[in-house]
Specification:
The chain is α/β, with parallel strands linked by helices and 207 residues long. It is built from five helices and eight strands, in the order βββαβββαβααβα. The strands form two sheets. Strands 5-4-3-6-7-8 form a six-stranded parallel sheet, with helices on both faces. A two-stranded antiparallel sheet has the order 1-2.
């Protein structure tokens, strides 16, 4: 329940050390374009479990994503996705296909994701939300659009760095600012009770 390691003392004087082992972060990438390749590679470098989905078979090719754990040709809306999502699952939408992103956003909206990033300008995401009939307030705080930290990223590799860094910050309850301006410990905090339950889709960042 506390999601942290602890020393347990029993009434008869015995002691036991309980160690909590959390699973790897699981990143679901919806869209198998060229800019998704460095996202998958960097996430796997961090030890995350990476799945790539796309409804277009000529995009979703295993040889294109050698670092991914799985590459699946999957049209949005197919059953079975909810079973793959747990408290350590995050997702990004980057298919460059409005229809795919629309269907996927509608599909993911009800899932307890800790992070849901959408590639592209804010105006596009707002249109997606409008067309799905989803309430922005309801999706807060997990939805990030435009996704990624503001590091002046230019090109797929730098965008991947910005996105993965934002996911890492979000998972640790950080804003992604400069460490020299942070008061207190620089290390990641332990999850508080309830942190991994009831996550919804951080408000849409406005530019």
């Amino acid at each position: 329940a506390q999601r942290s390691s602890d020393l347990i003392r029993f009434s008869d004087g015995r002691e036991a050390f309980l160690e909590t082992l959390t699973p790897a972060v699981r990143l679901l990438i919806f869209g198998a374009g060229d800019d998704a390749v460095p996202v998958a590679g960097l996430a796997k470098y961090l030890g995350w479990q990476v799945s790539v989905f796309d409804g277009r078979a000529h995009y979703a090719r295993p040889e294109k994503f050698p670092d991914a754990d799985e590459v699946v040709v999957r049209p949005a809306g197919q059953p079975g996705l909810a079973a793959q999502i747990d408290p350590w699952t995050v997702a990004v939408l980057m298919s460059h296909s409005y229809s795919q992103d629309l269907a996927t956003l509608r599909e993911l909206a009800a899932q307890p994701l800790r992070y849901l990033g959408v590639l592209g300008p804010r105006k596009r995401t707002l249109q997606l939300l409008s067309d799905t009939g989803l309430d922005t307030a309801r999706l807060s705080p997990a939805l990030h659009s435009p996704m990624g930290l503001d590091i002046g990223a230019d090109g797929p590799q730098q965008v991947a760095l910005a996105v993965i860094a934002e996911i890492q910050a979000t998972l640790n309850g950080r804003e992604g600012g400069l460490l020299r301006e942070r008061a207190g410990s620089i290390h990641a905090r332990e999850l508080e009770v309830g942190d991994a339950e009831g996550f919804r889709i951080q408000s849409i960042a406005c530019a």
